[in-house]
Amino acid sequence: MGIFQEITAAERRKFTMILVVLALISSSVRANPGLSITSPFQDEDWFDFCKEPAMSLSYGSTMNSLDFLEGDLTSPAVAGITLGSLCEEPIEEDSPVVDYHYNYLAIGRMSGELGGSSETGGIDLNYWRVTTADQEGWGYRFAFGAVEPGVVFFHTQGLHWDYIDSEDDISLPADRRRMSLYDESVRFGTTMAAGVRLKPVQFLGIDVAYERAITFQRTLVLKWLVSEAVEGVGHSILDTFIGEVMDSSPGAAPIVGFVLKNGFSYAMYELRRTNMNFPFEGAAPLLNETVKMGLTFMF
Fold this sequence. Notes:
The protein is of the alpha+beta class.
């Protein structure tokens, strides 16, 4: 039976129905010639041609939560380093609107030793996190003589693996059982982020971002894949609409894309707060909400 053992007969029927609906939506979008995305991100050669190495350093504060936990989780600081390949190019020659893409691998640390707040009697939560993510968006460049400062509005989706350590002795038995599913274990999860990068010069960006990450107490592969497919189809529809906006009103597309894509991901993660593999019912995941600032260096 393999991974199919993780779902009941009723869930299998729901699983099949969802896949059929997603297939019909995808076919409808592809069959409509008026719904075409003109973003160069559809061309892998474009990214390979213009990508350059980049490094980001970040620091921020996080708020941890786990639904139905009786005690409180502490809110330590988070620091991280990101290495990857970045591309930022105008959508057309001499256009102030730019396309942006950043593929990266990140290593992060959440710990009270880095700062943050420690509630009295709270559950002290630390982790090491490895993340692989895809960040994309649009922005504007402003030419002032030989200098080209700019701003980029981005949306991030990624996967992460955490090694979690809860150092305090948890007094409540129910909480102790819940946290034992994470404590001293490697756990899989997903991440989204919304952010803005200000570029005073071409090679340096000042980043401000809001990140939501969920970590699963265990990975239910089929349910997770369907949940990701639901979000993926939603983003495909939004990309199609944003492409139409880019064709008709390029100046508005960066803001429209930022609001729609991040708003949709935020809603999906809110639904997953209590059901980690929405639209399936299930356990609540560990949720991290982080506001962070950072610097990105483009070489």
